[in-house]
Amino acid sequence: MAVRGHNRNGAAFMMSCLSRLLVKALVVALPAVTLTAMPSPASAEEATLSIRPQTWAYVSSSEENKAHANEDGHATVGLQGSYTAPAQPESVRRSFFGYDVSALRGKTIVKAELTFVPVDHSCDNRIVGFSLWETGAVGEHTTWKHQPEWLRTLGATLIPWLPCSQQTDYWPFVMQPTASVAEAVAGESGLVTFGIQSLDEARPTGRLLLENNPELRITYEAERRNAYPKDPRLPLAALNPTAWAYAESGHQNVPHWNTGEPVPVGSPDGHRRHRSFFRFDLSALAGDRLEEARLWLSRADTCRPGEQPVEVWETGDISEETTWHRQPQWLRRLDAYTWQSCEDSGASLILDVTEAIRQAGQDGRASVTIGLRSAAEDDPLGWYSLDNGPRLDVSHLPPLSKPSDLVTDNSDRSWPAPLPGRIGPFPCVRGEARPYIPYAPRPEANVPGGADLRWARWQWQTLDGEPVHEERNGPGYGRAYGPRWGSDGVAYRWRVRSEDVYQQVSEWSDWCEYVVDTTKPGRPAAVSGTPYLDRQPAGGPGVPGRFTFAPNGVTDVAGYYYRFSGDASWTWVPAEVDGSATVTWTPPGAASYELAVVSVDRATNRAPSTASYHVVVADGA
Q1: Is 362 strand, coil or helix?
Q2: Burial letters for 161-194: b for 16+ Cβ neighbours within 10 Å, e otherwise?
Q3: Is the separation of the CB atoms in 46 and 110 below 8 Å?
Q4: CA 537 – CA 587 distance, rounded (Å)
Q5: 526-617: which CATH number, 2.60.40.10, 2.40.160.60, 3.40.50.790, 3.40.50.410?
Q6: Hey, which of 119, 233, 294, 494 would disulfide with 452, CB 3.0 to 4.6 Å?
Q7: Tally of helices (H runs) and strands (E runs) in the chain
Q8: Per residue in 368-412, pLDDT tens?
């Protein structure tokens, strides 16, 4: 047992103490026994409870039949009366302190510390030391002749006597009766009593006065209910009850439906019992995977040490006719709130109802009903008054939806001058409308649903279904972008699905088709005109001419850009089915004009060379 006694004087005093302790150890035939609890698991969290004695007493050898229980005076030990106080009759005193540790029943005790505080430091109040014992219980009739049994010694503290000028103050004496407290917690009564007596009751070295309410500080293993979901990545739905009721055994046929009262659980007096029920609507979570559910209950009363557990159950449904006689069926126990520490967890009760909520989701039920009852319905320590506003927090995993808003490419590319123009975007299409793209496109899609980062799995096939490539990329949120894929002259189809860390896999998207075409038209356009032949005077100002652009053997011409001398910009004209296009132009005056023509294929590739045609407008005079 660890004992701490400190003096505020200097190093000389400490050295003197050590030397005197060695001498005392040779004289006092009482071993200091060290008692410790088994080490707690590394994963356990710890809480503390500080309690004072529920009863205390001292006995005096000079008053063999007189009881001194729960008096206002100080606790005393040792031989009272000496040459410094001759008026006092000599008597030996011993003190006892009883503690109720039943509040910790079921807990694993890690450590117990009992602190004795001296209250008088005058010179005649010196003692050789005192021992700590576990004893039998004390009460109003405890006297010197009827002392409790001294069961076992738990240790001792040695206080060396020094001249008054050298010793003025003591720190509190801290002793560790851990094993005795642990046994009392596990015992039936939950009570433990400690006694103290002088190490040498025959020596007239004065008395030691102590405060009569030594603190017993107990450290124990406590389950910590985490206020946050185990997986913070999941969305959290906060649900309030759509209906609630309570039943009371004192009014067994009276319904209590959707009242504004606090929520009662247990018995306030050991006779009238209360049970409460809540219905929660789960329809907003239909189709989701329900991962974790916690019921939050705030207290309308005050936490009390040693409260009995509150049990939470899944029950049958409730109605306006729910009473004590017409309670719903109690289907299964889900969890229990067990008192830990009023300092740490007295404001709220957090109960795990995952099993019921998850099963309701799997069964496709739109609601679930939760019931509360005390584990000790006849014990007032099982009584709880809770705020009328419980909350059910449900961590849920939405399914991955089919990818949508598919785009084969949206790269926002443009052709450079002198023929600027945007390339694409290329939407998701199939069949004859499939786009021809002058580069390997980068597909993209929305991948909705789920809760967290997700991957996109992309597939490419030829149009006849032969697999070409498959790749997964990510993770990311919301919008997914695939890799660029494709070779010149090949037609493809692609699709995508999403996958997440929860092993969810979405439905495949629709197929999207495209053809990669990076080959430019191999020949310039063939240009002809009437009445204006190339480089030959004809017509006149205001006389329109018709000019035809032909593909010149190129099979996939989609249109032409053309421009006459003096035009500020190029003009686009789409090709007919045969690949040709015809435009009409009226010269503004007699002069020589150049017509420039660039053919463009269906992938928007420009011919590398420009066709040139000269229009000579004759003077009409």
Answers
A1: helix
A2: ebeeeebeebeebbbbbbbbbbebbeeeebebbb
A3: yes
A4: 12
A5: 2.60.40.10
A6: 233
A7: 4, 44
A8: 999 999 988 988 989 999 999 899 999 999 999 999 999 999 988
pLDDT single digits (tens) 288-326: 999 999 999 998 888 887 788 899 999 999 999 999 999
Question: What's the per-residue H, E or C state across 582-611?
Answer: EEEECCCCCCEEEEEEEEEECCCCECCCCE
Q: Do domains 3-222 and 404-516 have the same CATH topology?
A: no
Rounded to whole angstroms, how far apart are CA atoms 238 and 392?
6
* Class of domain 236-397 as given by CATH: mainly beta
Q: What is the rounded CA–CA span in Å between residue 6 and residue 569? A: 99
What local confidence, expressed as pLDDT, does residue 28 receive? Answer: 34
* Sign of torsion over alpha carbons 403, 404, 405, 408: positive
CATH for the stretch 3-222 = 2.60.120
| Run of H or E residues at 22 | helix 11-27
Read off the tokens for 365. Answer: 């039920």
Closest to 332 (Cα-Cα) out of 353, 349, 351? 353
User: What per-residue confidence (pLDDT) applies to 205?
Assistant: 61
User: DSSP E strands: which ranges in 240-390?
Assistant: 243-248, 256-257, 263-265, 274-281, 289-298, 310-315, 330-337, 348-352, 367-374, 384-386
Q: Which fold has domain 404-516?
A: Immunoglobulin-like (2.60.40)
Instruction: List the chain domain ranges.
Output: 3-222, 236-397, 404-516, 526-617
Give CA separation, 154 vs 3, 96, 109, 115, 172, in Å: 10, 14, 17, 14, 17
User: What does the alpha-carbon distance between residue 436 and residue 424 come to, in Å, rounded to a whole number?
Assistant: 10
Proportion of the chain above pLDDT 90, given as a percent: 66
Secondary structure string (H, E, C) spanning 115-184: EECECCCCCCECCCEEEEEEECCCCCCCCCCCCCCEEEEEEEEECCCCCHHHCCCECCEEECCHHHHHHH
d(CA 425, CA 431): 18
Q: Are 88 and 81 in contact (CB under 8 A)?
A: yes
Task: Extract the tokens encoding 535.
Answer: 């480089």
Nearest to 116 by CA among 232, 32, 194: 194
Rounded distance between C-alpha atoms, residue 181 and residue 191, angstroms:
9
What are the distances in angstroms from CA 439 to CA 316, 403, 413, 445, 462? 64, 24, 10, 19, 17
Q: Which structure tokens are listed for 96? A: 């006892």
Give the total residue count for the chain. Answer: 621
